[in-house]
Records
---
Amino acid sequence: MLQVCLNGSRRPHEKVPVTLSQIAEAAVEAVAAGAESVHVHPRTDLGRETLDGELVALTVEAVRRAVPGVPVGVTTREGLVRDGVERLAVVSRWPRPDDGGPVSLRGGAAGGVPGGDSEEDTSTKVAAKSCCPAHRRLAAVSSEPSS
């Protein structure tokens, strides 16, 4: 599965989609070019990434209207909320509008998540259980022993 990240953690630039309409238009272009899944970083009016539930819901809704049936995942990048436990709490308050994605648990969360032996183990377990098909496959591959 080919997944596009429309507007990851980049400095503001005229080519990086920020508004809901720009993000939706970029999703249409990416899917037309072959993307089967969309990963997005919701932005405030000032162009800053955010985990705000209302903006997450509006962003996901805009992408879904633009490319119906295409899975949409949202960032949980560490830099947005430094503490992993707090970040997990923020994401758990989302109205679950996205189709899932890995929840980044670096920054102190691994020890606080039941069954989490280390940051890597916990991130893989959470990704494997709670995300879109592309991320589940990635989590499965990353947890396989190297030959």
Note: Helices lie at 20-32, 53-66, 84-92, 119-130, 133-143.
---
Amino acid sequence: MRIAIQLLVAVLVLWGGCVGAEEPAPAPTPAPLVAPAVAPKDTPAAPAAVPAKEFKVALKKGQRLAIVGDSITEQKQYSKFMELYLTVCQPQLDLHVIQLGWGGERAPGFAARMANDLLPYKPDVVTTCYGMNDGGYAAFNENTGKTYESAMEEIVTRLKKEGATVVVGSPGAVDTKYYHGGGEPPRIYNETLGKLRDLAHKVADKNEQPFADVFTPMETAMVLAKAKFGETYDVCGTDGVHPRPNGHLVMAYAFLKSLGVDGQIGTLTVDMKGQAEGSEGHKILSANAGKVEVESSRYPFCFFGDDKSPDSTKSILPYVPFNAELNRFTLIVKNLDAEKAKVTWGKDSKSFTKAEMEKGVNLAEAFLDNPFCEAFKKMDGLIANKQNFETLMIKQLINQFPRISTTLDKDKDVDAALEVLRKKLFDKYEKFSADVKAAVTPVKHTLVIEAEK
């Protein structure tokens, strides 16, 4: 017990940076602060994505998912959106999620720290997002590509050996206005990132693992959104690299698609001359003359903010098929004695044709402000707190363990005490996870369907 206490004190001292100047072992490689190399003017734009082979994830109940990457991951936005979606939109999966983002990291840095920081978690599925720093913020060269591909191969091979499925993610894109002032620098570096995307795809295919193309939907959304809102609308951040919520929603979309989620939140079927039915996760409490009361344990994903701001998840929705492919909460109405009907859900009302309602209306897309928003915001805050703890746990504490062990000559008592500390930290992580899941409470809501003349 004494050595455990002394060890904890030592860790906390190291955490505060009060002992020595040596970096934690292993230290992630920081992104270089250099201007991009100049390529010839006829350098082509980023290459088109190679069609991905269909290596799919079949998520199973209770699995452990780790979200790994550099400072863009450590922003804890796309990782939060992913965990939010998997927790409230697909609660039946009962997944355990952790993020291990590290600012400035390249793929070789994670390959070096993986055994200590990730493998004890025993992940079943791992998503990786490297390449932004690996490209060196310069025109592509073969050495850059070989270093990146080799490190990604090492990561995927080791995780496969440990029994995990790896969703090999590509890097995202840089902003065409804000990266190094726009013009040639972002064009050149997006070409580099496009080539790293193809190398990530190659590693995934070689190892028969799923691939997440993050680069292409980000670049596509950026072109379309800037055409609508103007060049000052950033998708990849005002520093050109780190996205705001709009860009992170696109990243979450890419990874969730590659995780194989089917996007079906639920279906409510209302017979205007009969009863109403709800699919799994949606219990009909009452139904009478077009008024339906429902209790739902599965939430649609909710969006917030100004529909013209990069700080808003709403603003990017027209340029990424998040609702159509991942967020289908469908209302089907039968036996409507009119060509149109008004649907009221929460505070908002909208009109739909009879044909639209017979085919099915996606409530999550049609009603962005809906009865789930308040509960969704609460979950957003809880998951943000949980992921903040994960960063502290991994970066400030667990990552120090090899250094402490080496400093104290790999003493058996020290190593045993470190494992006790690791267990206590993961116990606290599990408590955060349990509290998040317990907070997902059913939402009661009412739909009113009225025929219009």
Note: The chain has two domains: 22-258, 264-372+443-452.
